[in-house]
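Lecture notes, continued. The same structure-token format from the folding unit now serves as the input rather than the output. Read the line below as a description of shape only.
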């Protein structure tokens, strides 16, 4: 049997994307286990073979590009038409807010009753309000969960997504992506010299360009026959190679200090990779990403991202660190305990607060499903 893979259906689930979500979320968990073992980010005395775990931020870059891609798949197949904007916002709120608010309450309880996040004071009532309204990137307050900063950014990107599609539909992908990128680059260039513009950096503006890249790359699914012939994965490798060389050559201090520009450089590679995976190539990667364990992990990756940070902190600070020599023993035991605990807890959490809201699109449908289960 040859190395072939069934072409993704023109409608429905795209093989590989859930797996990418799952692996990106898992990488963030590993990143936080590493950070707690060797403080001093971005410089510490961790072994060289673990240094790749320093860059958990890049997993969030992948999430943002993937979010733009996933949201644009259906419009791309419909002439870049979104349909009802009100329905779009309702569905986004239904999808992200119930698990987010539940995870926020979970994080607040742990921070108040057990242990706060490293380097943070216990969250206040103001923290609960700011995080509850998804304004944590606008207003500063003690964080109950070190991973939640990006959820506010993504929610704000949803607000401009209909405008992105409108521009894309009327004037084309190049103009939309060029306009967004030009605005973002202008913000990054002016921020060091203009205090008012520097305030915008709190919003992580480069993520708007990454989100737009994802949306544009979803356009390959408009013509599945042509997209299947294009070597998107090789284009992705070519785009990623110089960025990888830069990261290795420049070192972590420079890279972390220039995340804005490095993120923008990574965006095209991430978008092209998604185009390749959605088109079924490379075959070996699509097959790996679509194996049952990886795909299953992706099905509750949002929950894993939302709740892992308080769990990792509790396990590392209260269970591992007091009983284990610092350095590699602490790291390995933290991994051994925190990773499976986070995955198991996230699966249980998703079973209650995430997956039911994916399966049922209204309170009525959800109530009926609950009644059917308890009878």
């Amino acid at each position: 049997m040859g190395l072939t893979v069934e072409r993704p259906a023109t409608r429905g689930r795209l093989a590989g994307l859930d797996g990418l979500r799952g692996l990106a979320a898992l990488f963030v968990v590993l990143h936080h286990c590493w950070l707690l073992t060797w403080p001093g980010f971005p410089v510490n005395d961790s072994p060289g073979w673990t240094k790749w775990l320093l860059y958990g931020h890049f997993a969030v870059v992948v999430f943002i590009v993937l979010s733009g891609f996933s949201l644009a798949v259906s419009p791309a197949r419909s002439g870049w038409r979104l349909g009802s904007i009100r329905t779009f916002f309702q569905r986004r709120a239904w999808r992200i807010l119930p698990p987010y608010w539940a995870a926020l309450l979970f994080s607040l309880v742990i921070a108040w009753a057990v242990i706060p996040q490293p380097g943070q004071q216990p969250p206040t009532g103001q923290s609960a309000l700011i995080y509850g309204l998804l304004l944590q990137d606008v207003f500063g307050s003690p964080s109950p969960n070190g991973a939640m900063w990006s959820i506010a950014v993504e929610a704000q990107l949803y607000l401009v997504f209909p405008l992105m599609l409108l521009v894309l539909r009327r004037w084309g992908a190049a103009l939309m992506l060029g306009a967004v990128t030009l605005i973002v680059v202008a913000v990054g260039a002016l921020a060091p010299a203009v205090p008012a513009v520097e305030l915008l950096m709190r919003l992580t503006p480069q993520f708007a360009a990454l989100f737009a890249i994802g949306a544009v790359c979803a356009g390959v699914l408009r013509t599945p026959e042509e997209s299947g012939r294009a070597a998107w994965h090789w284009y992705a490798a070519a785009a990623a190679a110089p960025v990888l060389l830069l990261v290795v050559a420049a070192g972590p201090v420079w890279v972390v200090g220039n995340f804005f520009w490095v993120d923008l450089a990574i965006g095209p590679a991430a978008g092209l990779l998604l185009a390749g995976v959605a088109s079924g190539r490379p075959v070996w990667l699509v097959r790996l990403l679509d194996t049952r364990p990886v795909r299953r992990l992706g099905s509750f990756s949002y929950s894993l991202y939302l709740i892992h940070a308080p769990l990792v902190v509790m396990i590392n600070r209260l269970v591992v660190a007091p009983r284990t020599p610092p350095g590699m023993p602490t790291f390995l035991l933290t991994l051994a305990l925190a990773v499976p605990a986070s995955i198991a807890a996230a699966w249980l959490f998703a079973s209650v607060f995430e997956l039911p809201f994916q399966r049922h699109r209204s309170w009525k449908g959800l109530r009926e499903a609950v009644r059917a289960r308890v009878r």
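Point for the exam: The CA atoms of residues 219 and 269 lie 16 Å apart.
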